[in-house]
Amino acid sequence: MHKAKITAVVLAAGKGTRMKSAQAKVLHEIFFAPMIHHVLDALQGLDLHRIVVVTGHQREMVQAALGGYAVTVVEQIEQLGTGHAVLSAAKEICEDDGTVLILCGDTPLIRGRMLQSFITGHRDSGAVLSVMTTRLDDPTNYGRVVTDAAGNILRIVEEKDASESVRLINEINAGIYCVDGAFLLDALKQVGTDNKQGEVYLTDIVAIAKSHGQPMHRVVCDDPVEVMGVNSRIELAQAHLALQERRNRQLMADGVTLLNPTTIAVEKSVQIGCDTIIHPNVHLSGESVVGSGCVIGCSAVLKDCRLGDKVHVGPLAYLEGVVVGDGEAIPPHHVRCEI
Predict the structure, then answer these.
(1) Among 35, 65, 31, 71, which residue's Cα sits nearest to residue 51?
(2) Ranges of each domain in the chain
(3) CA dist list (Å): 61 to 73, 90, 92
(4) What is the Cα–Cα distance from 330 to 141, expressed in whole angstroms?
(5) Which end of the chain is more exposed for a tag (fewer CB within 10 A), N or C?
(6) pTM attached to this predicted model
(7) Burial class of residue 309 (count of CB atoms within 10 Å of its CB; 0-12, 13-18, 19+)
(8) What integer pLDDT is reported at residue 1 of this predicted model?
C-alpha cells in the first residue's frame, strides 16, 4: 500500500513573552539540552520525508542551535500567528498526496512513539485532518476544543476569543496536527485575522474542515504531561523534572540503584552498568561511561568520564574527561580535569 510522504513542521518562531527572557523560548535548556532538541529527538525515529523548522525571533541563534540535525530552516519574517508560521513553510510542504505533521518547538516531553501512533491513527482513519487534544484540571491559557454530543470536533477556540461557557471546557488543543498538505495550504489561505490578537490562527482550519464536510479525527492524549507546552519558568522547571524522572526510571529498570532519585541528574547520553549505586545530588553528563558495581558518592559531578567496574567515587568529587580503571577509588572532594 502506498504511503504518503510526511513532512514534519516544527513551529519555533515565537518569542515566548511569558518566559520574561531575552532568549528565544525554544533555546531555554531543559534537562541538558535546548527544549527544541527534545522535540527534534522525538522525530528522529519516524519515517519522515523532511523536517522543517520555522524560525522567527532570534532566528540566527535558533538556526545555530540546530546544527546537529538534518532539518530545513525557514523564516517567518513577521510573527503573525501560528497559521502564518505554517504558511511560511508552504514551499517545503508536500502537496501531492502528502501529509503534514505539525507540532511546536516548546513541547519537550513529546515522545516518538506517541507521534508514530498519532500518524498511524490519522492514516487509518481516512481523515483529512487529525487533531491531538488532552484534558486539564486548569485549562487556563489554552485553546478549548468544542465538540458535538457524539464527540466530533467542531472547532478550536483560543482563550482570548472564548465565551464564558467555552472557557468552562477542560479539553484543550495540544498543538499537534496531521493534515493533508493540499487541504492545509488551501484552508490557511481562507483564514482571516478577525480575532482578539489579529493573527492567522492555525486552529481555524478545524472549523474550515467542518464547514467543507471534510472528515476529521480527534485523538485525546491520556497523559497531559507528554503534550505539555512550556510557556513560563514554572513550566520549564516542571518539564525538567518530568524528563529527569523519565530518565531515572529507565536507569532503575536497567539495574542501577538511585538513592533519592529526585536529586540525581543523568544525561541520556551517559551509560551506566548494572549494580552501580548512585547517591543523592549526583550529576552525570556528556559521554560518560560508568561500569558495573560502581559507587558514586553524594554530590559528585562527572562529565565525559570513563569509569571501569567497581570504581568508588567519593562525595563532592569533580571529574571531567577522566579515565578511571577497574577497582580504583577517587577520594572525597577530589578535583581532576583532563580535557
Answers:
(1) 71
(2) 5-221, 254-337
(3) 12, 23, 22
(4) 50
(5) N
(6) 0.93
(7) middle
(8) 42
Architecture (CATH level 2) of domain 254-337: 3 Solenoid (2.160)
The 3-class SS string of 240-303 reads HHHHHHHHHHHHHHCCCEECCHHHCEECCCCEECCCCEECCCCEEECCCEECCCCEECCCCEEE
Contacts with 208 (C-beta within 8 Å, 6 or more apart), sequence order: 187, 190, 191
Q: Is 246 a catalytic residue?
A: no
Q: Which ranges in 190-232 belong to alpha helices (H)? A: 204-211
Give me the mean pLDDT over the 213-235 stretch: 95
What angle is formed at CA 80 by the lines to CA 181 and CA 119, rounded to 5 degrees? 30
- CATH superfamily of domain region 5-221: Spore Coat Polysaccharide Biosynthesis Protein SpsA; Chain A (3.90.550.10)
The model's pLDDT over 112-154, given as tens digits with 9 standing for 90+, comes to 999 999 999 999 999 999 999 999 999 998 999 999 999 899 9
Q: Which of 119, 202, 110, 122 is nearest to 156 (CA)?
A: 202
